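Q: My labmate handed me this sequence with no annotations at all. I'd like to see what the chain might look like in three dimensions before we decide whether it's worth expressing. Could you predict it?
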Amino acid sequence: MEEKGKRFISNLEEVKKFQVERSRRLHSATHMEILQGLTTDIYWIRTYEVLRKLNLLDTSVMGEVFARESGVLAGVEEVLNLLQDKKVAIWSLQEGEEFQAREIIMRIEGPYGEFGLFETVFLGMLSSASGWATAARRCKQSAGNKLVICFGSRHVHPSVAPVMERAARIGGVDGVSCILAAKLLGKEPVGTMPHSLVVIIGDTLEAALAFHETMPPDDTRIILVDTFKDEAEETLRVVSVLKDKIYGVRLDTPAERGRVTPELVEEVRKRLDLAGYPQVKIFVSGGLDPERIALLLQADAFGVGSYISGASPIDMTFDLREVNGIPRAKRGRIPGRTDNKRLKLLKSI
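A: Here is what I predict for the chain of 349 residues:
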């Protein structure tokens, strides 16, 4: 799988010879398999075969990526890492920047054989990450100055959980719970406590005390209060014992019990204030989206899962616009470089 120093699968014989090891335990692609081109579409390999036969594989080309809807860009760092050892130049918007429908968000230039078969790969990186980042931005905009934490890892395949939560952070959330995602960002993961802990112990207050006594001193104490009894009642039980040791309570009332409502948040807030604990924060989670966040702004922080993790990828398209320096494109596209002064050179040949 080597051609002029390139180590990736590039012909049909290599595809035919490749076999999945019988000892393989997981279905997700490894980093090496992605870098070798094993997650691309077969027609790129066929394209390489034809161009190689015609001595055109290293034809100099320029192509551009655009999105079919507006959003927030993410995935650029991964694309740069994918193509870091390829002889290509890359211009792009920055991660976290908003883009408009059909705006050129990335331009790639170089010999086609250096990067052509990775079109499937880099479009997938940009499409998925930008979809997640866009959903995260909408949640953060709805929350205003309130904290938003991404809790979405349980809703996606674990192989992409860190990609998703990293994209959510690029989109604007204040923290992520996935360990690997946080570490990729140079941050520490954030979170509270699960219902499983409370169910196993059998009492919210006992669980809160055990949690407090076990966690390191610098860990934030946010106690889940909806497992067994009325949320307001459990809140007062917990704060009356932990007092200034507790940072906040989390409301995660399930749909079967009516979910968290503005009235519930208001009641818990009022009872905390009357009991002399105005500093205790209210953290809300459970089926949140931008609309529900807007209804619950009396809370102090929000945990969002499926709205972010379930966001659809943003449809990205890559088109060649120049061949050997000459403007050329398929029908429906304008040949030549598309003017976008927001593009920055991020990688030189």
